[in-house]
Design brief:
This protein has 157 residues and is mainly α. The protein has helices spanning 3-25, 30-47, 50-58, 62-69, 84-94, 103-117, 120-129, 132-135, 140-156.
Length: 157
């Protein structure tokens, strides 16, 4: 496989993710979707510990992984954000110039996208390290699986 073919494939996969995110949000502008994806990924990355952030990144498509790592300062993570509004604030700031962008809607849509494309085990790991208010932004089916796992672990203990 030539490098160009690999890059073309990575670009197409990124476009697919952006288009899928646009469908979820009712947006038809890839640039708008890119801004939302970037803002939410950065907020999530900065809330995770270094190891968990790297584990998540390993499952992202090549170009999306680059977006995720852009500007990252691992020594500043994890940020001690405990509440949903604190988590949504950097997303709100990043999307300030984007018409029709609601940070919570964007976060929910990106988390749903991740849940569809990444392994269930990785998503459960991510959900498990987040505070309850932030965790509630993830898809209900994923949260149900996480809660079942918690109950099972408690029953075995």
């Amino acid at each position: 496989m030539s490098a160009v073919t690999g890059l073309e494939r990575a670009l197409q996969k990124t476009y697919h993710w952006l288009d899928e995110l646009g469908s979820e949000l009712g947006w038809d502008d890839r640039q708008h979707c890119y801004a939302a994806l970037r803002a939410v990924l950065h907020a999530l990355r900065d809330r995770l510990g270094v190891d968990e952030a790297a584990d998540l990144a390993a499952q992202l498509p090549l170009l999306v992984r680059g977006i995720y790592y852009e500007g990252w300062n691992p020594s500043g993570t994890p940020q001690r954000i405990r509440h949903k509004e604190e988590f949504l604030e950097p997303i709100r700031k990043a999307l300030a110039g984007e018409t029709g962008s609601e940070p919570e809607e964007a976060a929910r849509a990106v988390f749903a996208l991740l849940a569809r494309h990444l392994s269930a085990g990785e998503m459960l790991d991510v959900v498990g390290v987040l505070p309850a208010e932030i965790r509630e932004l993830f898809p209900p089916a994923l949260l149900g699986s996480w809660r079942e796992g918690q109950e099972l672990a408690t029953a075995r203990a």
